[in-house]
Structure formats: structure tokens, C-alpha cells
Amino acid sequence: MRRKRMPEIIFIHIGLILTSLFFLFPLLWILRTSLISKAEAYQIPPNWGAALTLENYATVLRENNFLKCFFNSFGVSVIVTVVAVLVGALGAYWMARFAVKKDFVKICVLLIQMIPPVVLVIPFSMIISRLKLNDSWTALVATYLSFTLPYVLWMLVGFFEGIPKDLDEAATIDGCTNMQTYTKIVLPLVMPGIMATAVYSFIVSWNEFMYALNLTGLRARTIPVAIANMDTSQGVAIAELSASVIIGIIPIIVLSLFIKKYLVTGMTAGSVK
């Protein structure tokens, strides 16, 4: 029976490898371009034996305040993620357990999430300008929360609804307050969902371009805006651009790998309990 299944298994693995290469090819091409010289990057047909160099990375990190932009993106994304998860988790728990018109509240949250971000650019710009918060982290955090917080609420309420209310009642009988029930009983059970939602919030905040372009200048500029500014009237420095893209996706890759291990551990522990 194993011999009969072997061709099928080989075919499936070949298909998976080809599919993975299809989706990874653009990223691999960007990585290759970032590791060759500027002259080799523009060469057509490409020189597959080109010498590898880290000159493009050194240039990117040395010029255009790229490190500052990296720090801005990281700081804003972390703040947005923490605030969205803390507030969103409390709000989702309230919606799942205590909201009187829960379905109506869900619809309101969903409608907020459906508003196109481009519609809010001008209103946010006017408000932030009057508050004199232009080119600041505060402006970015406030605007990013407008679309990350509704998503966190919408996602987490489903996780909280999946937790039986009997656990809350048992905790209340044991003398726990609502907050103690939330922090000690319910929150650990939904932690995998919270971490997955936090990853999404971080990725969306990290990649956000439109608000950052309109609300920031040199002081609070983020990675996406810095990368876009490499397209100048003199052309695109394709090798340096590729290096900046690789630098920009490193935090997402590291975070995803860390959270993947955390999710597997959390779900396994939850099943044992």
C-alpha cells in the first residue's frame, strides 16, 4: 500500500515545492538584487555569477535617515498593537459577556471597519493640523487605531464567545470579580487568538503608507514612505531599494516565527488542560 501511495506523495510534494517557488520568486529576486552591485542590478540579461556585496545595505543604513524611519515604524507599530490589543480585548470581552444588544454592537463595529481609509485622510489631516500634531508619533498612533481597533474587536469577540460562560460562573462562585475572571480565567484561554490578532495589527501598522505619507515629514517618517522616496526624478536606485525592502520585512519575519511557536505552544497547552 505504501508503494501505491508513493507516486501520489511525490506528486503532492512537487506541486507544493513549485507553488512555494512561484510565490517566493519575487522575494528571492529582491534578495539577489540587494546583494549585488548597482551596475549588476541594471544588467540585462542578469549576470547570475555576479559577486555578492553588502554595499547596498550599508548605503541604505547610512543615508536618508533610514534607521530613524525604521525606529519610527517599529515604535508606532508596537504602541498601536499594544493599545489596540489591550483596549480591544476588554471591549471584546464586554461584548461577548455583558452587551445587551450584542448583534447591533457587532454591526456597528463592522460598519466602522468597512469605511475606506482614504475617506478619512482629509478629516484626520485637518484635525491633526489644528491640534498641531503634524509629523508626530501621536498623529500616526491615533490614525492607525481607527482601523486596527475595530478589527481587533471584531476578531477577539469570536474567541471570547467560544469560551463557555460556565467558567465565568464557576469563577464567580469561587469569589472572583469580573476583572479577576477576565485576567485569570478567560484571558489565558484566548491568548493564541490575541497573539494572532496582535500580529495582524503590527503588520498593518508597519505597512501603512497613506496616512504616513500625508501626516508625517522628516521627523516621523516611516519605512514605507522612506522606501517610496527612493523613486526620484533621476530614476530608481534598484539595488538600494531592494536592500531597503529586505530590511523592512525582517521584523515581520522574525515576529511571525516567534508568534508561530507561541501559538503552537498555547494551543497544545490549552488542549491538555
Q: Which strand order does the major sheet show?
A: 1-2
- CATH T-level topology of the domain at 65-229: MetI-like fold
CATH homologous superfamily of the domain at 65-229, by name?
MetI-like
In what range is the share of β-strand residues?
under 5%
Mean pLDDT comes to 83
Our measurement of the CA-to-CA distance between the termini, rounded to an integer number of angstroms, reads 37 Å
CATH architectural name of the domain at 65-229: Orthogonal Bundle
The first-level CATH class name of the domain at 65-229: Mainly Alpha
Work out the helix count.
13
Instruction: Give the helix level as a range of percent.
Output: over 70%
Number of strands: 2
**Radius of gyration, rounded?**
24 Å
Find the structural class using helix and strand composition.
mainly alpha
